[in-house]
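are you around this afternoon, could really use another pair of eyes. what follows is a protein written twice so to speak, once as letters and once as structure tokens for the fold. i want to understand how the tokens follow from the sequence so walk me through it. anything you notice is useful, everything is just below.
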Amino acid sequence: MKIKKIGHCCLLIKTNDVTILTDPGTFSTEQNSIKDIDLVLITHEHADHMHIESVKEIIKNNPSVKIITNSSVGKKLEEAGIPFILLEGSAKTEFGKVSLEAFDCKHGEIFEEIGQVQNTGYFIDNKLFYPGDSIYFDPKLDIEVMALPVAGPWCMLADAIRYALAVKPKKVFPVHEAMLRPELIGLAHNIPKKVLGDHGIEFVPMIAGDEHEF
């Protein structure tokens, strides 16, 4: 599995001859010109994860692409005339040789009900777990790689580290840190790298533009 971090939570994943893009939001634009995308996974409706204009550009460049998401995002896609495939709850499906499994993951709390929307995590190809904006839900799976949110108005670094320790993936890489100033990115990487490494979990630092083979 090869993962390129486009930015924030927008990832380009290539696995078993399937190319998957996650969460094309407003914090990145490179996704708008990528071709040969088979699937787009959208975890929730917040603009940093789902930008309708970006989705339209992706479809323009990839006419046969399939958009996979939950009911909440689906309503917004329907309003824009964009077809989608529903995958939420504990549903499973396959595309080619790639399996996808959905998990309802409560969105991290900003304050009480502010910003609370349906958030769906996805287990991709029995290898990568991407929880969206959640650091609470343990899917209780044998996870090789996890995309770990490390910053945000709902995410303290200490809680993110505890989440990784609870889920126990073999490797993690950071997402959801585009709102940090560049000089603070290292802090959000170095601390979990040290703590998780002490517990046998490899932390793979990735910034926008980085690509890694997992």
